[in-house]
Design goal:
The chain is mainly alpha-helical. It has helices at 15-32, 37-49, 53-62, 68-87, 91-104, 107-114, 145-165, 171-178, 180-191, 197-216.
Length: 233
């Protein structure tokens, strides 16, 4: 009997993408003009003053759910290789490569161009965009790469898991992978003062755009039926 191996996850409407991009642009322009900076500082100062050490340790570990280079990229490439071997096709690897390139040419350049320091930056004007004093590991804060990574890479992971399991993920599992990690990462990266809250919101908007772009591409991994096994003569 034919069995579907993967639910159709492609998206076709452009209106949500346009709205998300508009939101990102509006937020960025507002910050560049000095709006919302006082709110960012207030949130960062509040979480710093209300963060006991045990809670810090737990949130620090949970924040790794959005770590691209050390967690999500290795996990995704392993799943892609396993799926490619299972299907005897390079298409799962193309999905991984497409996601990697898409995030590499968007998140990194935006961080460098907008040049915002993180809340923990000890230098002057830490909250402003285009900060000439921002440099090093505590700079490049806007947008949050962790949040954007979580949204884009967990889309890839859900597709690859569906291929490996040869059946659609349950709705609960799908929501758990696509929603819970980004929400956890947004909360933890803000509460730990790794990012300003507007960094996290910008990462959310950008990550949703990237995930939708990945879901729009015809990777050749749409629903299909497994070959029927020939019955014995």
């Amino acid at each position: 009997m034919a069995v579907d191996t993967l639910p159709d996850q492609r998206v076709r409407s452009w209106w949500p993408d346009v709205a998300l991009l508009a939101g990102f642009v509006v937020l960025t322009v507002a910050l560049a003009r000095g709006h919302l900076l006082a709110f960012d500082v207030w949130v960062a100062d509040w979480v710093t003053a209300h963060r006991p050490t045990p809670l810090y340790s737990v949130l620090y570990v949970l924040n790794y759910l959005g770590q691209g280079g050390w967690v999500l990229t290795p996990v995704s490439i392993i799943l892609a290789v396993l799926a490619a071997r299972k299907l005897r096709s390079i298409r799962p690897l193309l999905l991984f490569a497409g996601a990697f390139v898409l995030m590499y040419v968007t998140i990194g350049p935006l961080k460098i161009w907008l040049d915002r320091a993180a809340p923990r930056f000890p230098g002057p004007d830490r909250e402003i965009l285009f900060n000439p004093a921002a440099s090093g590991a505590k700079a490049m804060s806007y947008p949050s790469g962790h949040v954007a990574n979580a949204l884009a890479w967990y889309f890839v992971i859900t597709v690859l898991l569906g291929l490996l399991l040869a059946r659609p993920l349950s709705r609960r599992a799908h929501l758990a992978l696509r929603v819970v990690p980004p929400v956890v990462v947004l909360i933890t990266t803000t509460y730990l003062a790794f990012h300003w809250i507007t960094d996290s919101v910008a990462g959310l908007l950008l990550g949703l755009i990237l995930a939708r772009l990945l879901a729009r591409v015809p990777w050749g991994l749409e629903p299909r039926s497994t070959p029927r096994t020939a019955s014995p003569a």
